[in-house]
């Protein structure tokens, strides 16, 4: 039986859409320009971004379709605690070109090769999965995961719901992703407790987050030693980044002494 052309084409189109970050509106761009006014432009090779402060190195990572400006309040708080904070603009930023998670990971590796390994990383959403690829053997001492995306299956579900994909189109997209890099798929599936070895992890998450299931965060906190979770309510997936309670929790976590006796960053 000959497969109709639309049925053959749609999986290819959804795969292309999967690799394309959302656009950036002029209104948000103008607001972002005000938010980053207190930060200094940063560049490492082909990776741009912003930095602020002096001291031990911290890195703040935006998620897929995110912006460096979203991490501005976190960067300023970490800088006030005595850190040099870099906010790189990773591939996958809002309004950027089509890309993929491997290129995001490569960009972060190149920044670390340039500036050194951080003592602290704060990662939002999709950046939590990027971290798995960059730190498979030894992670920074302190890691904060904000509204983390921890399982590629969940991301596919959210993507499919937004595009109103029928079940066969969702299956076709998953098949293409699995075939694209068979070794990558298992690394991004499940909130497995072996991830980010050597780090103390703080998770901050809204139970009503519609983009990244809270249940995955709760599972990781329950199964992974050295992991704690804090509920931040009524802030959703992105507004959480500027929530005062979140900023206070990050400060407490990054400035206190480690439970293992290490000094905080």
Summarize the model shown:
The protein has helices at 5-18, 26-35, 72-80, 101-115, 127-134, 152-163, 167-180, 184-188, 214-223, 244-255; strands at residues 40-44, 47-52, 57-61, 84-88, 120-124, 142-146, 200-205, 227-231. The protein is α/β, with parallel strands linked by helices.
Summary tags:
about 260 residues; alpha/beta; Rossmann fold; 8-stranded mixed beta sheet; 10 helices; 8 strands; globular; disordered N terminus
- Find the structural class using helix and strand composition: alpha/beta
Shape: globular
Helix content: 40-55%
Oligomer: single chain
Please name the fourth-level CATH homologous superfamily: Alpha/Beta hydrolase fold, catalytic domain
Main pleated sheet: 8 strands, mixed
Write down the overall mean pLDDT: 90
Q: β content, as a range?
A: 15-25%
N- and C-termini, Cα separation = 63 Å
Radius of gyration over C-alpha positions, nearest whole angstrom: 18 Å
> In the residues, how many domains can be counted?
1
- Regions with pLDDT < 50 over 5+ consecutive residues? 1-8, 259-265
CATH level-1 class: Alpha Beta
Number of helices: 10
Q: What strand line-up does the widest sheet have?
A: 1-2-4-3-5-6-7-8
CATH topology: Rossmann fold
């Amino acid at each position: 039986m000959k497969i109709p052309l639309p049925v053959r084409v749609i999986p290819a189109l959804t795969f292309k859409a999967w690799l394309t970050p959302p656009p950036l509106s002029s209104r948000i761009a103008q607001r972002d320009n005000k938010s980053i006014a207190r930060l200094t432009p940063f560049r490492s090779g082909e990776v741009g971004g912003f930095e602020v402060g002096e001291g031990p190195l911290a890195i703040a990572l935006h998620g897929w379709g995110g912006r460096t400006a979203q991490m501005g309040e976190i960067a300023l708080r970490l800088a006030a605690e005595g850190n040099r904070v870099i906010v790189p603009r990773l591939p996958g930023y809002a309004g950027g070109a089509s890309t993929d998670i491997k290129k995001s990971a490569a960009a972060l590796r190149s920044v670390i090769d340039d500036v050194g390994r951080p003592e602290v990383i704060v990662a939002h959403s999709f950046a939590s999965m990027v971290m798995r690829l960059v730190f498979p053997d030894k992670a920074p001492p302190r890691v904060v995961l904000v509204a983390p995306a921890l399982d590629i299956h969940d991301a596919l579900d959210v993507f499919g719901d937004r595009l109103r994909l029928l079940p066969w189109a969702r299956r076709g997209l998953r098949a293409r992703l699995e075939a694209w890099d068979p070794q990558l798929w298992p690394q991004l599936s499940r909130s497995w407790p072996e991830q980010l070895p050597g780090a103390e992890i703080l998770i901050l998450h809204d139970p009503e987050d519609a983009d990244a299931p809270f249940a995955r965060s709760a599972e990781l906190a329950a199964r992974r030693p050295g992991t704690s979770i804090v509920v931040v309510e009524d802030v959703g997936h992105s507004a959480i980044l500027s929530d005062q309670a979140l900023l206070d929790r990050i400060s407490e976590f990054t400035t206190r002494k480690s439970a293992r006796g290490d000094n905080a960053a």
